[in-house]
Amino acid sequence: GNSSSTSSVYSTRLTARLAATAQQNAADTSHGPEPLPANAKQTMCSKIHWHIRSRIGTLCLLLATVVVGLTTAHSYFHGQSDTPNCGMSYSRPRYIEQTEFGRSWTRYSAKYKLYLYREGGFDVHDQPFRIPVLFVPGNAGSHKQVRSIAAASSLAFVKMVGESPHLVDEGCVGYDFFTVGLNEELTALHGYSILEQADFVNDAIRYILSLYPKTRAKHQISQTKMALPTSVVVVGHSMGGVVARTAFTLPNHIVGSIHAIFTLSTPHNNPTASLERHVEDVYNTINQFWRRGFRNGTLDDVSLVSIAGGNLDSMINSDYAFVGDLAPSRNALSVLSSGINDVWLSLDHQSILWCAQMAHKFSAMMVRIMDAQQPTQLVPLDERMAVMRELLYPSIDSEVSEGVMDRPMRSESYRYVRLADNDEVELHPVDVRALADSSQTRSRKARALHLLPLQKEGGYNGQVVQILYDPQLFADQPSDASQTNVQLALLGCNRNSTRNIADADVNVLCTTLSIPKVTKLPLKRNGDDPNLPVHSLHYIEYSLSVDQYEYVGIE
Q1: Which three-class secondary structure state does DSSP give residue 522?
Q2: By C-alpha distance, which of 305, 273, 267 is closest to 287?
Q3: Which residues are catalytic?
Q4: Is the whole-model pTM more than 0.90?
Q5: Is the backbone of residue 174 left (phi > 0), alpha (psi -120 to 50) or beta?
Q6: For 237-260, what is each residue's pLDDT tens digit?
Q7: From the CB of residue 220, how many other CB atoms can be counted at a distance below 10 Å?
Q8: Judging by DSSP bridges, how do beta strands 93-97 and 131-136 pair with one another?
Q9: Residue 350 per-residue DSSP state
Q10: Residue 518 main-chain phi, psi, to 5 deg
């Protein structure tokens, strides 16, 4: 009973409150809405404008982000300044598995394999007897990646012997390329794989060297006796270069079994992906070993050449391929493929192996440094590095050639030249093209001398003459493909102040300074045929004092 009375009381009170609220709302409606203050209206308008501006700003920022992103993507995929322009290389490969290289030689025989590469049409014997080379593939790489540089080296050797057969008797007998199958392991991500592969490489080198006492005696291709090899040339791609350097640090390494390492797109300084601590430990260990080895003399006879692909290599930062802080300049060389004469291309991570221009340059370098008369199978270190710098470095990076300016001037070094009557001497007018034989004939096949005045106004006393010219100026035909074979001489010239020359018209006296080293600067365009030679300008740099000469001449 009490609960029913209480509920009725609450209901009555609630009904009364609702009725009062309704009456108040009706009264307010009858009088109209109360007007807002002026400052309240202004505040509301400001808030509305702020919201509109913020949304417009957000939309503009979003639109700009999309535009920049699309532009960047288009530039990356379609607007690279270094466009791929590699010629295709071809080979006829055979891979002969070395089945005798089993458990008695290495504990990794069930995991890794060793193969001998044979080029069809060139290698008719299945036994190695030339100069041994071992190729080490990189991260997830295959042993078959050796085929392009191996085939190009075979062709380069055949061409060299065809032109100069006597070189065979001087130790140029060609190469035997071995290659290791490393199960396509991800060595960039696993430090222990680097150590295992390096251990296998040392065992493979020991096995390879054991083959030659029998095979060299059986296949004697040179009239002079070839020395038994005590070392193997190693070529490493990507992480294969790191594996090759790691081999030096392991207990099973034979001291002196490697005298030359060539690496292609190898990250020497830092790992490309630091996903495992042990990878960094391996890097620190081998880099410390190599720096210490050159200081204490244990690596004095080892050469290390690192070739990087440049901008198109999206997997390896080319800065990581620099070896100048690992080895002294006497032993080491670092170069970008885009700076190599007659290559002049940025190469991606895989094409550095098969690009025809790169393979031809690499093979030309290889055939220049072999010498089977030496136990190392290579020419001495200094000669080896000189050849590689000549072929890989543009001469613009070399020191300025020093001419001997105070030597006695011999009469046969003089050149008597007729000039035009005017005092202005420039390169382009036809009048400048005086003939060195003092004849009036304008034959393109005659030796021609081009004179350039040395400016001395303003007290300038320079020490270096720099000349940039088009070699077609000296070619027999304007489009002569053999323009790079034209040999030029650099001369210093003065106007003749004496009257003891029989021909009064000869008023300039020149003396030969040197045959300068020429740097080729390519003129490349997108879409050029990669099979045709790239036209280039030539650059000469020579050290001399302008006080001694009025003109410098190119003959």
Answers
A1: strand
A2: 267
A3: 238
A4: no
A5: left
A6: 999 999 999 999 999 999 999 999
A7: 12
A8: unpaired
A9: T
A10: -105, 135
User: Using CA atoms, how far apart are residues 435 and 488, in angstroms rounded to an integer?
Assistant: 14
Instruction: Write out 274-324 in H/E/C secondary structure.
Output: CCCHHHHHHHHHHHHHHHHHHHHCCCCCCEEEEEECCCCCCCCCHHHHCCC
The model's pLDDT over 346-391, given as tens digits with 9 standing for 90+, comes to 899 999 999 999 999 999 999 999 999 999 999 999 999 999 998 8
Beta bridge partners of 520: 538
Closest by Cα among 268, 302, 293, 295 to 282: 268
Task: Look at the chain and count its residues.
Answer: 555
CA–CA distance, 504 with 303 (Å, rounded to integer): 59
Residue 477 has pLDDT above 50, yes or no: yes
What is the average pLDDT across 292-299?
Answer: 91
At 184-230, the pLDDT tens digits run 998 888 889 999 999 999 999 999 999 999 988 887 776 677 899 99
Q: Which residues contact 180 (CB under 8 A, 6 or more apart)?
A: 112, 113, 114, 115, 134, 135, 136, 137, 143, 197, 200, 201, 204
Q: Are 417 and 436 in contact (CB under 8 A)?
A: yes
Distance CA 332, CA 269 (A): 14
8 A C-beta contact, residue 324 and residue 352: no
| Backbone conformation region of residue 342, classed left if phi is above 0, alpha if psi is from -120 to 50, else beta | left
CA 145 vs. chain centroid, Å, equals: 19
Q: Which amino acid is at 36?
A: L
User: Closest Cα partner for 465 from 392, 389, 405, 409?
Assistant: 405
The residues that bridge with 464 in the sheet, in sequence order, are 543
Compute CA distances 227 → 59, 173, 287, 348, 549, whole Å.
76, 12, 33, 39, 53
Q: Which residues contact 442 (CB under 8 A, 6 or more apart)?
A: 433, 435
Give me 338's structure tokens. 């885009």
The torsion region of residue 515 among left (phi > 0), alpha (psi -120 to 50) and beta comes to beta
Q: How many CA atoms lie within 13 A of 497 on its CB side?
A: 3
- Find the angle CA(305)-CA(279)-CA(136) to the nearest 5 degrees: 40
